[in-house]
Write a structure and sequence with these properties.
The structure holds 2 protein chains of 2 kinds. By secondary structure, chain A is of the alpha+beta class. Chain A is 47% helix and 18% strand. Chain B folds into 2 domains: 122 residues, D-Maltodextrin-Binding Protein, domain 2; 103 residues, D-Maltodextrin-Binding Protein, domain 2. The chains are: A alpha+beta, B alpha/beta. Chain B: InterPro entries: ATP_PRibTrfase_cat, ATP_PRibTrfase_HisG.
Chain lengths: 361, 230
């Protein structure tokens, strides 16, 4: 694959995004590692290159543009705003050394609080049009639906918070559901702790930054949790039903409406999905044929919290998605230092697009 | 042509390795002065002894600069990406036992499982404004282990020695380190999590999958393996 060809393809794509009303922006290749580590945790180290600067501390070769673009917008961006960018990103590929560790991304990001579902549709329709057929299959989902379902569970706020925290880690999420619904046994160590009248009195010195008060607080929380009744089977089934939704948009919508009858708190999220379908149809997207999967986007980047989408090659299923994106309202809040704004965007990989075209011809 | 055998250059690990080979009819010895890192092999022809730091043996095997090497499983797994494509374990030598474990202050009576560690990390981050710090030198192994265990809200801080002391010095809240008896941990008021260890390690004889495989070298390797019974 000639990188020159990919470069000129990237510029064409960026021009198309500018044509659609976006302002071109650029970001530094070296990003402070602290921000990214704080957002993603240790796992980012397995995906990004970390380097050391004696004066600036740990730096990372940018693993994507979204975070620096959000930071730039939150610092001094006017509203509403549309941005486009094009450049290389760097990803370590420990598990798949055959994959590229340096590749181009051309992106389009929308910061607009007027009508989030219309903005979702704008981004998706623009990507569909820019990619132009190409024998691509579109996948869509909505992290907001699952989040709303978990938020509506009839259980303690602490349990809901713990489940929401692990929504991106399906295995851990499942283990927590099993524990809260009484399907897995309480570990022996926990039983012993709860049975003890003065568990802190074990005759060892308190060392480290985590104080005795913090330990006592958690024991208190564990006692409260032990007194909490298990999450009912109906509610567990409901979450499973939501996770299983995978069909074309109209059927998925009807299905979710049925589930929401028993979970009224889900209604708003389902309404948003309905409005998005309308907005997509208004932009000429054939919603009747568009796939929707409620668990789509669950294992990828943690910052998507609403609409998510990806475009895949049908002829080359071995390739990563040609394009992907989604809504990340919460990210703007975390990087906004008190401010926030609804935001949605996505990226195209020009190198993958060229390979897909090659396979087509 | 010769094949090269890499052996730890000092301490008990070297002595025990010499013993293990000796019991199988291959005599390894240091030559020259006490401080000179050169050695000799008797009992099999065409084998050259290379004395190296145990920590460098994985890298030398992966590069194919040595054909055989004795080192800990922990070092091979930590230092080599896709280790099983680069080296093949031929024999576990039955010494140098060590478990890579996660330990927390013994006063953390509420933390015994990875589940607990994760919950404590979430509360810690909310209270202190930064992720719970785990001191270790085994970054890759520990990160993989914690990811599989579904632990979030932690960060690894590098510690190349005296790791057990980091908690008292307030530079970490927990540690991930090698232990054989657990005595140092107890002396520092730490306890091991009630979970399977990150890794169970022992001294192991590895073969490089990437070193020179001329017919002559193959033959020497075969003779050596037959003599050792591996």
């Amino acid at each position: 694959m000639s990188s020159l060809k990919a470069n000129s393809e990237a510029l064409c794509l960026r021009a198309a995004f500018e044509q659609a009303g976006a302002t071109p922006v650029d970001c530094a290749v070296l990003q402070p590692a602290e921000t990214l580590l704080d957002l993603y945790g240790e796992d980012i180290r397995t995906r990004a290159y970390v380097t050391q600067d004696p004066a600036r501390g740990e730096q990372m070769l940018r693993p994507d543009f979204t975070v620096p673009v959000v930071q730039m917008h939150m610092a001094d961006g006017a509203e509403p705003a549309r941005y486009t960018y094009s450049g290389v990103v760097f990803r370590r590929q420990e598990e798949n050394p055959e994959r590229d560790s340096e590749y181009l991304q051309t992106g389009y990001e929308v910061f607009d609080r007027t009508d989030p579902e219309a903005a979702d549709a704008e981004v998706f329709a623009l990507f569909a049009e820019t990619l132009g057929g190409e024998g691509l299959r579109a996948a869509t989902g909505d992290m907001g639906i699952l989040t709303a379902a978990v938020s509506s569970l009839k259980t303690s706020p602490q349990r809901r918070a713990a489940l929401l925290r692990h929504i991106w880690r399906p295995r851990r999420f499942r283990a927590l559901m099993d524990r809260y619904s009484g399907r897995s046994a309480v570990p022996q160590t926990r039983k012993a702790l709860l049975a003890s009248s003065d568990p802190l009195d074990i005759g060892v010195p308190v060392i480290g930054l985590r104080s005795e008060v913090e330990i006592a607080d958690r024991i208190e929380a564990l006692r409260a949790d032990a007194a909490e009744p298990p999450i009912s089977q109906d509610q567990v089934d409901m979450i499973d039903e939501v996770l299983k939704v995978s069909e074309t948009c109209p059927y998925a919508l009807a299905n979710l409406r049925d589930i929401a009858v028993d979970m009224p708190e889900m209604e708003q999220a389902v309404d948003r999905f309905a409005r998005r379908c309308d907005a997509l149809a208004a932009r000429g997207v054939n919603v009747d044929k568009l796939d929707f999967e409620a668990s789509y986007g669950r294992t990828s980047m943690e910052y998507y919290d609403g609409f998510v989408f990806g475009f895949y090659s049908e002829a080359r299923p071995d390739l990563p998605p040609v394009a992907s994106g989604g809504r990340y309202d919460a990210l703007t809040q975390r990087l906004g230092q008190g401010k926030s704004i609804p935001a949605v965007g996505g990226v195209i990989r020009p190198d993958i697009l060229l390979q897909v075209r090659e396979a087509q011809s | 042509m010769t094949i090269k055998l890499g052996v730890p250059s000092k301490g008990r690990l070297m002595e025990k390795t010499f013993d293990w080979f000796g019991e199988r009819g291959v005599t390894l010895s240091r030559t020259g002065s006490e401080r000179e890192y050169s050695g000799a092999v008797d009992g099999v022809d065409g084998v050259e002894l290379v004395l190296l730091s145990a920590g460098e043996i994985p890298r030398e095997l992966a590069a194919g600069r040595i054909d055989l090497g004795v080192t800990g499983t922990d070092l091979v797994r930590e230092k080599l990406v896709q280790w099983d494509q680069k080296v093949e374990p031929l024999a576990e030598l039955g010494f140098g036992f060590a478990d890579l474990i996660i330990a927390v202050p013994a006063c953390w009576v509420d933390v015994d499982t990875l589940d607990d560690l994760d919950a404590a990390a979430a509360a810690f981050r909310a209270k202190h404004g930064f992720r719970m710090r785990i001191a270790t030198k085994y970054h890759r192994l520990v990160r993989d282990y914690l990811r599989m265990g579904g632990v979030a809200d932690y960060q690894l801080v590098d510690s190349q020695g005296a790791t057990e002391g980091t908690i008292r010095n307030l530079t970490a809240e927990a540690v991930a380190d090698i232990t054989s008896t657990g005595e140092t941990l107890r002396a520092n008021h730490l306890k091991i999590l009630d979970e399977p260890p990150v890794l169970k390690s022992q001294a192991t004889l590895f073969r490089s999958r990437l070193s020179d495989k001329s017919d002559e070298n193959r033959e020497i390797m075969q003779t050596l393996c037959n003599t050792l019974g591996v």
